[in-house]
Design brief:
This protein is mainly β and 392 residues long. 8% of the residues lie in helices and 46% in strands. The radius of gyration is 20 Å and the shape is globular.
Amino acid sequence: MSLDFDVTIDSEQEEDPIEDSDTISNIQEVFRQKFFIDYQECATLKKKYITHATSSNDFSKIAIGIGNEMQVYDMTSTGLSKYIGKNEFGQFTHPVSGVKFFNNDPNLVMASTIAGEIHMYDLRSFKKVFTFEDDTEVVVKPVNCFDVNSNDRLICAGTDEINHEVYLLFFDIQERRLMGGFFESHQEEITDVKFHPTEPDTLASGSTDGLINIFDCKQEGEEDALLHSLNTCDSVNKLKWHQENKLSCITNTNDLHLYDITSQDLLKKWERSEITETMKRKSVMDCHIVDCHNIGSEMMFVATSNYNKGECIRSIKFNEKSLDPLANITGNNQIIRASLYNEKDNVYLTFGEGAIISIWKEGISSDNGNSSKQLKEESSIKKKMKKKANPY
């Protein structure tokens, strides 16, 4: 079973570390936009990683997965306001493997765990509405990832490998029941599932077996539902739908693929070394893509270097022809695990191994009294706590 909080290997852990730094002296000549920290909040005083993050469609709320917990925040004009729930709101006995808001109701949020459960909460009452799980067999099917389709009627969950089989499980949200599953299209653990943003029955799934499968979920049988199968000749990490039926794939070797799903063509493949070169960094081992995002009709990804506590974050636009530097995001001090982008307000959010949520805005000084003071106070408390041998 692969867990999202495995330690990331970078050059600083090698016997002869490569010092990662910029390859040019004036980075602002290439990355024209410059973003600074507008607000930061420490999600916990314990040594835990933020491994998952999501936002409501209107970006009024965000949710994170951190250890065995889901946390939810309101996005406010001054930063973040945490939901303080009751009755063990968002607390689980196993690590969170995914978080997701409903597409049409920001008050409904879900979190999955590796125990095979998907928990649905209503933020208006802080109550758990329902827990979706496959209880047809004694064996637990650990959920690695899940998604909700665009009309909020269907959940698909991708599982780890159990007894040499992996599953795509489908749940009816309105009837709150398991509808069935597919188990022949992938041979290894499923790492990501993404419903099409406007076609509620179209699903993309990715796996460490290297396949990206496209399904029409209206069809009852798996053979009829499987529309296309694309072989990345790699291991799939994350998928993202874009306009004009394009799909991006970040691989576990830190390459980036762009596909046209209509024609089933691989439009472009960028290797990790090309990503590093476009970032204007030296160490290929340290540099990787965090997440892909949409920016209008264009595509963009957030990339980072793990060197020196992840001090380098940059965003880069991409299409089937080129990689184009976009923004230099300065002042980071943690290794980044997830990112969000609010297109309306041109705001980046990053989340990482320091359990810090950072909000980045263009052209704003990082010397923000309120946010800096809050994070410093939290860090001071954190340092005074006794060190634990096990960070989880």
